[in-house]
Amino acid sequence: MVKKNKSSTVSGFYKFPVEKRIEFVKNFSDLNEEDIKLFSSCLEIDIADRMIENVLGTFEFPLGIAVNFLVNGKDYLVPMATEESSVVAAASNAAKIARVKGGFSTECSEPLMIGQIQIIHIDDIAEAAKKILEHKKEILHLANEQDQVLVKFGGGAKDIEVRILDSPLGKMIVTHLIVDVRDAMGANAVNTMCEALAPLLEEISGGKVRLKILSNLADKRIIKAKAVFDKEKIGGKHVVDSFLESYNLAAVDPYRAATHNKGIMNGIDSLIIATGNDFRAIEAGAHAYASRNGQYTSLSTYYKDKNGDLVGELELPLAVGIVGGAGNIHPKARLCKKILGIKTAQELAEVAVSLGLAQNFAAVFALSTVGIQKGHMSLHAKNIAVMAGAKGEEINKVAEQMIKEKKIKLDRAEEIISEIR
Asked: Rounded to an integer, what distance in angstroms lies between the CA atom of residue 133 and that of residue 127?
């Protein structure tokens, strides 16, 4: 268990050798020697073969740690599995700036997921909808019989909603089953309940049930994060104003909003992958939520407070779990949850949305000032050097020379290597 007096703030973490970084994480998260070995191990092939079909091997992402995170008064080291340069450093820097004004605060709704049951070929749509609502108690009882363990822990089916939709094939009813999934992502539990309800809903409605499946637009499972970024820390009033001018394009233009929200998901996805959760489901829900008012727009909001500081807020559906799924099978996913020190799915969601806000702030801040390429290409230069064949100390020398010349290209890297050798 992570002790409260441990701080996630560390200066120059990126300069540490890997061994020293691991030692810091080990001490912060009380890892043991078996945990440490997992950092350099690969997923065992027999485990991989049980996770998906037609397995040939495994595919590794770099696993990094974002530092400086203070969320609801608690320090976290945040594991990030990503192949993209600069995002870990950017998130860490944004979290450091946010700490000046108290870090990130969050709000969560209940962990409610929606199961959809589509009913077609109904003679009297209005009467069928009425009957379904009249049988609500019976429907919920049958749903909860499918997962007594979930009910025991305070979850289970809580409500139903009935929607009448027009389609090119005629009117249909979609019954929403609202399920409290507690610390699970919820797909398996909700899908099982929906499938069990199909015969009953056909009997009640007189129609035919077709689809019966969870919705990834989890708009009853909303998480919000907020942070204040000190105006002096980020460069003064003119930087705040420049930031807001940049942000407002995402607020009104879907072409910019798509890239803006991608920056948010750079952070969230990397943590979701690291903890063995379903990043595709979260991506789908987030982008659908960004379009909920008829136009795709920014998931985040920024404004100035009375002190002139920059305030950032991020709101989106976030269906994550800490029980079940790949997160309980993959050894590194279990390790990442141990590093986080989380106890509930809500706590994981709180860290994830804070990470998304940090990543978004960092991207817009860079775009508003030095440009996105300065930090990104500095790290990218090392990748180019490796691609060109640089080894050991050559990598830094080649990267530094390309950055100095502002020519981060494969052919130039090859020329520098030849000059060095």
From this structure: 10
